[in-house]
């Protein structure tokens, strides 16, 4: 009996020793991996993840343009390749742009807006998803609050008269709170985004001597490929900002491509 008992104890001791050795080996492997993993490899892995669109965007920064309404320019939000991608994606589906009928809420043609355009569903593909995530990051507005991207094209003489992006007599919780206007091309002459009622301007970009006559009618921003304009239609207290009246000046020379992302107060489900 004593011999059998000793053998049983020996087996238990052997199991404990083997477990200890295995645990030591595992800990050694973990420490070697944790401390010898090259930080450059981490950066390379992150850089190679296909979550940041296409092309090089260069240096990005933000400029405050006005506080009434709140207007900001984000330089190099889009790369040249992303601008060209959005244009090519939209070309087969371009149609006459419309405006919203104040009485019916439907879309109608109007001499107020003479461009052509089309819509891309939110999350259309991986590149669109990357752009939408970027917009969400710099606006601090969740992706789910954004409408689908609208792509617009203006030829010489085409424009969009001053208007508001928020809905008249709309339920505020379903209203558009802000607009991100991305410039997909430069414009040789004209095509400025103008805010006739803006106050408290903060940047000389609105006082450029190269503005068209339309552009001189208020605070104006000249389109620059890759840049994005963010302006708010509602004030922080939720009331309408009447100074957010804005328009697209006629293109006088060349052409203009842009993309619009409207942001809602609440989640937007009609993609």
The major sheet is characterized as: 9 strands, antiparallel
**Could you tell me the mean pLDDT?**
83
Principal-axis shape equals elongated
Contiguous low-pLDDT stretches (5 residues minimum) are 1-6, 29-50
The helix-and-strand class reads alpha+beta
Strand numbers in spatial order across the main sheet: 3-6-7-17-9-14-2-1-12
Span of the ends, CA to CA: 79 Å
Query: Per DSSP, what share of the residues sits in E-state strands of 2 or more residues?
Result: 25-35%
Estimated radius of gyration:
28 Å
Number of helices: 4
Fraction of residues in H or I helices: 25-40%
**Number of E-type strands:** 17
Instruction: Give the topology string: H per helix, E per strand.
Output: HHEEHEEEEHEEEEEEEEEEE
Q: Can you lay out the helices and strands and say which pair or pack?
A:
Layout: H1 2-36, H2 39-48, E1 61-68, E2 70-75, H3 80-90, E3 95-96, E4 99-100, E5 107-108, E6 116-120, H4 126-139, E7 149-154, E8 160-163, E9 176-183, E10 189-190, E11 193-195, E12 199-201, E13 219-221, E14 228-232, E15 246-248, E16 251-253, E17 256-264
Antiparallel strand pairs: 1-2, 1-12, 2-14, 3-6, 4-5, 6-7, 7-17, 8-15, 9-14, 9-17, 10-16, 11-13, 11-15
Molecular structure report:
Its main location: endoplasmic reticulum. It is a single-pass type II membrane protein. This is procollagen-proline 4-dioxygenase. Belongs to the P4HA family. Its EC number is 1.14.11.2. It is built from 4 helices and 17 strands. The chain is an alpha+beta fold and 271 residues long. The strands form 4 sheets. A 9-stranded antiparallel sheet has the order 3-6-7-17-9-14-2-1-12, with helices on one face. Strands 8-15-11-13 form a 4-stranded antiparallel sheet, with no helix packed on it. Strand 1 and strand 2 (70-75) form a beta hairpin. Mean pLDDT is 83; it is low at 1-6 and 29-50.
């Amino acid at each position: 009996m004593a011999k059998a008992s000793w053998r049983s104890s020996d087996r238990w001791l052997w199991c404990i020793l083997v477990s200890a050795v295995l645990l030591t080996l595992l800990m050694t492997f973990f420490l070697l991996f944790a401390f010898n993993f090259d930080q450059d490899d981490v950066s390379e892995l992150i850089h190679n993840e296909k979550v940041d669109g296409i092309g090089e965007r260069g240096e990005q920064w933000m400029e405050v343009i006005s506080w009434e309404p709140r207007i900001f320019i984000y330089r190099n939000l889009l790369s040249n390749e992303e601008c060209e991608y959005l244009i090519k994606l939209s070309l087969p589906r371009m149609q006459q742009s419309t405006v919203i009928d104040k009485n019916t809420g439907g879309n109608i043609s109007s001499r107020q807006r003479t461009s052509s355009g089309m819509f891309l569903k939110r999350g259309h593909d991986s590149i669109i998803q990357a752009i939408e995530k970027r917009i969400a990051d710099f606006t601090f507005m969740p992706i789910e609050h954004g409408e689908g991207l609208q792509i617009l094209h203006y030829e010489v003489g085409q424009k969009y008269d001053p208007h508001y992006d928020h809905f008249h007599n709309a339920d505020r919780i379903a209203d558009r709170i802000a607009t991100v206007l991305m410039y997909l091309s430069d414009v040789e002459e004209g095509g400025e985004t103008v805010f006739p009622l803006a106050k408290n301007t903060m940047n000389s970009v609105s006082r450029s001597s190269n503005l068209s006559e339309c552009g001189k009618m208020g605070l104006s921003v000249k389109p620059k490929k890759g840049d994005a304009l963010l302006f708010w239609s509602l004030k922080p207290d939720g009331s309408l900002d009447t100074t957010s009246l804005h328009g697209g000046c006629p293109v006088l020379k060349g052409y203009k491509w842009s993309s619009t992302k409207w942001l809602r107060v609440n989640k937007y489900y009609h993609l």
